[in-house]
Design goal:
By secondary structure, the chain is of the alpha+beta class. 54% of the residues lie in helices and 9% in strands. The N and C termini lie far apart (143 Å).
């Protein structure tokens, strides 16, 4: 039988040495396993967030006096998305005596005034923009201008219509009989200016913003002065009716009301185009017969306006109304020619066969 071999002391030392060598891989495996469990329990490793630096370029706007070329102020830290109106508001904070509507800014000293909607970035050649300042004087809004111009004639005419004792002879005012055309003329005159007032408040949309105060004074002097002259003659106790009597009066009154209605519908059509934002096409005639004039002229509202005053002249047969109508024809012809040229440049589909204000003539 074989006996169990007992290792000697030398063999034990060798086995011990080999035992130490065999136990090392087992310890490394346990260490790696413990490290893996630690990593898994900690979750996924997150990368540090990447910082994004957005660089915004700001502009400096140097404002110089247009007359002396002296520097008034520098508006700094103006974002590229700002408009000229934003610059005017910042300029007003620096110089409170000039509110935005009074400030006129130009790229060149003798150049045109820049619009408030102009982008600052479109003016920039470098980071510093130089603009020239002009004081436009005291300004008023267009709504205030038209309300003032139209309210005056309405009230002035009524003062003459009631025949104040301070204007006419009291005895003649009470004795003389008023012809029906006097009452009809007052009605038509009031209808005209009431329509203008209501359209100013609820229909028209003014893009210009403001105008100098002196322009309003000129307009009021023109309208108020002519209204006083017209009303004095028509409401005078010695006023004589038209030559052809009621037939002339009724025909002219009907033409006047038609022109007033046409003027209103044209203004509504133009205002609807501005409110809708579709300005790529000029308004075209619709099912409304009053808008068919769009096919013949560029400014049918002016056509209806002068039609109203010519009809009022025929109805009353007075010299002041005729002079006023003649001046209105001249003024509106100039405005119509200017708008007609602008429409030819603005609208690609605009026809050259249209007249400016009077079909086939002007």
């Amino acid at each position: 039988m074989y006996r169990r071999h007992k290792p000697s002391a030398t063999e034990k030392r060798n086995f011990a040495a080999h035992g130490v060598g065999l136990s090392l891989p087992q310890n490394d495996t346990r260490s790696f396993y413990s490290l893996s469990q630690l990593v898994l329990s900690a979750g996924h490793l997150r990368q540090p967030p990447v910082l994004r630096h957005s660089k915004i370029t700001y502009f400096e706007v140097e404002i110089l006096d247009a007359q002396s070329k002296k520097q008034i102020c520098i508006v700094d830290k103006v974002p590229p998305s700002s408009t000229l109106l934003d610059v005017k508001h910042k300029f007003h904070k620096t110089c409170p005596q000039w509110y935005p509507s009074r400030v006129g800014l130009q790229l060149e000293r003798n150049g045109p005034y820049l619009k408030d909607s102009v982008s600052i970035q479109s003016l920039a050649v470098s980071s510093i923009i130089t603009l020239y300042f002009t004081d436009l004087g005291q300004q008023v809004s267009w709504t205030t201008v038209f309300l003032t111009e139209y309210t005056g004639p309405l009230l002035i005419y009524l003062l003459f219509y009631i025949r104040l004792a301070s204007i006419y002879n009291e005895q003649e005012s009470t004795k003389n009989f008023r012809h029906p055309v006097v009452h009809l003329a007052c009605f038509c005159h009031c209808i005209h200016y009431i329509r203008n007032l209501l359209e100013t408040l609820f229909v028209h949309k003014f893009s210009g913003g403001h105008t100098p105060l002196k322009n309003m004074i000129k307009g009021c002097a023109f309208y108020w002065g002519f209204t006083s002259w017209i009303a004095y003659y028509i409401n005078h106790p010695r006023y004589t009716p038209p030559t052809y009597g009621n037939r002339q009066v009724m025909f002219a009154a009907l033409a006047f009301l038609i022109c007033e209605a046409g003027n209103h519908f044209i203004n509504v059509a133009l205002a609807h185009q501005n409110h809708s934002g579709n300005k790529s096409y000029f308004p075209s005639p619709t099912y409304n017969p009053f808008t068919w004039l769009f096919a013949l002229v560029s400014c049918p509202n002016y056509t209806y306006e002068i039609g109203s005053w010519i009809s009022f002249t025929v109805m009353t047969q007075t010299l002041p109304v005729g002079v006023f109508a003649f001046l209105m024809v001249i003024q509106m012809s100039l405005w119509a020619q200017k708008k007609h040229k602008m429409y030819l440049k603005k609208y690609n589909t605009y026809t050259y066969r249209k007249a400016a204000m009077i079909p086939f003539i002007l």
